[in-house]
Amino acid sequence: MERENFGSKIGAVLAAAGSAVGLGNIWRFPIETGQNGGAAFIIIYVLCILMLGLPIMISEFLIGRYTHANTAAAFRIVSNGSPWKWVGRMGVFTGWFILCYYVVVGAWTMHYAFLSVTNTFADVPAKEYGDIFNNFVAHPWLPTVWLWVFIGVIHYVITRGVQSGIEKSAKLMMPTLFFVAVFLAVCSICLPGASQGLAFLLKPDWSKVDSTTVLDAMGQAFYSLSLAMGCLCTYASYFGRTTPLAKSAVNVAVIDTLIAIMAGFIIFPSMFNIGMDPNEVGVGAGLTFVSLPNVFQQALGDGSFLAVVFSTLFYFLLFVAALTSAISLHEVATAYVTEEFGMARKKGAALVTATILVLGTLCSLSFGPLSGVTLFGRNLFSVFDDLSGRILLPLGGMLISIFAGWVLDRKLYRDELSNGGVLKTPYFKLLVFSLRYIAPLAIGLVFLEQTGLFAFLLR
Ligand code: TRP
User: Fold this and answer.
1) What's the gap in Å between 389 CA and the centre of ligand 1?
2) Ligand 1 atom 2: the closest Cα is on which residue?
3) Ligand 1 pocket test target in 329, 386, 391, 393 with most atoms within 8 Å of CB
4) Which residue of 24, 132, 216, 439 has the fewest C-beta atoms within 10 A of its own C-beta?
């Protein structure tokens, strides 16, 4: 069967950027930054991207593009059948695992966009936002309905194929996302008191930086760039032979970081406008679905037209960000089942979608009817989240960097990176140095920290 490629270089970059820009940029990055020393954290984060993120992203691109195959096959090919082939399989599994809970949050963004556009938040007292959220996620069927709609949209895009599905949707959604983000950031910055919010985000406070900050920054960089599980490897398998790998990786990293910082410009000025202390709100769901809807109403006028527009666009932004990332996660699994088991794309995609429907629904219900089902005291959603984020991702990142740095044939690497000698690669030595020494060591530390082994060993 003829394998599809992306039709253009810009399409390839936008698709990869779509994978990278996701919930991580909007609901984690700003708060992590604000609480960890502002610009100091941003500087450390950017260093992590330069020293670890880019080398690994380039390696994933390279392995995908060289083999033009799904991630499991890609690693099988480049590892010549040695046990390293398991890294690819693990990546496919991790991606599928992440997708199972990621879609749940994607669905919530749709519900909140709906609540915003129907002006449901008008005149809601501040303390009731928590109940609204808790009642929603615990509702016996409402989150599930949104979940199925969200998965339906992903499924539709995936079945349309690489060019008319993934690439076309990225070309439409990424510019939209960018303009919406710019619009919201400008609105937020124009609010009275905005400068305090900007100071909170941008003023470097090195006293808040310690070793865990650095590890957090690394973890965040990995998650945000969609590294370590074959997402970018799968997309790169659709890159054309003349797509410049390093330059594309830099573009993706720049877009991803820009959107993350812009999310801070959206969130903090409006928060400070109403005198809310960002240190008191957590990252993730608490911020996004409890604090922010209230912030938007208070800052822009409770129930006002502006509040409706702002709030709706914000959740739409989250929805688009989540959707493009979820599509990339789905594609990892779809490419795997279609190519490894020789299925038609429609059939393979349907199979993946079916599993996501089942497991996603279980994760979604774990906030309501299934909240009694726990493992180590966590509901199903958290089990999926923790297992993938804390264990599988750092492990995958470490293995990929070791593989790319120590095992992968150096000449092959250089040839592919330079597009067969066409491009200059003055950074090659640095890249290999990072892959061999810096990345495995650093990610090893992240792994120890995330799994709690660090604290255990330092006791
Ligand atoms: N990068 C996305 C975000 O910021 C999430 C994501 C998509 C992801 N694909 C991934 C995370 C692969 C880790 C690995 O939300």
Assistant:
1) 10
2) 22
3) 329
4) 132
Alpha carbon of 234 to ligand 1 centroid (Å): 13
Q: What is the pLDDT of residue 384?
A: 86
Burial class (CB in 10 A: 0-12, 13-18, 19+), 340: middle
Q: What are phi and psi of 226, to 5 degrees?
A: 60, 40
Query: What pLDDT score does 81 carry?
Result: 87
**For residue 238, how many other CB atoms are within 10 A of its CB?**
25
CA angle 393, 361, 158 (to 5 degrees): 65
pLDDT, one tens digit per residue, over 255-267 is: 999 999 999 999 9
Task: Calculate how far, in angstroms, residue 282's C-alpha sits from the geometric centre of ligand 1.
Answer: 20
The predicted pLDDT at position 211 comes to 82
Residue ranges, the chain, pLDDT below 50: none
| Angle at alpha carbon of residue 147, lines to 164 and 143, rounded to 5° | 155
With beta carbons less than 8 A apart as the criterion, state whether 323 and 150 touch.
yes
Phi then psi dihedrals of residue 374, to 5 deg: -130, 160
Residue nearest to atom 10 of ligand 1 (CA): 226
Residue 163: both structure tokens together: 């060019």
SS3 229: coil
How far is the C-alpha of 200 from the C-alpha of 455, rounded, in Å? Answer: 29
pLDDT at 66: 98
Six-digit token string for 158: 């995936």
- Name the residue with tokens 């009642």: 135
- Report the pLDDT value the prediction gives residue 284, as an integer from 0 to 100: 76
SS3 annotation, 218-254:
HHHHHHHCCCCCCHHHHHHCCCCCCCCHHHHHHHHHH
The whole-number pLDDT of residue 35 equals 85
Query: Which residue ranges have their beta carbon within 6 Å of ligand 1?
Result: 19-20, 22-25, 98, 223-224, 226, 229, 231, 325, 328-329, 393
Give the residue among 437, 431, 438 at the shortest CA–CA distance from 413.
431
What is the rounded distance in angstroms from the CA atom of residue 339 to the CA atom of residue 326? Answer: 20
- In this prediction, residue 1 carries a pLDDT of 56
Confirm whether pTM is higher than 0.90.
yes
Q: Which residues contact 115 (CB under 8 A, 6 or more apart)?
A: 121, 132, 293
Looking at the CA of residue 325, tell me the nearest atom of ligand 1. Answer: 7
Nearest CA to ligand 1 atom 3: 22
Closest alpha carbon to 402 in 89, 54, 45, 84: 84
Choose which residue among 25, 31, 98 to substitute to test ligand 1 binding: the one with the highest number of ligand atoms within 8 A of its C-beta. 98
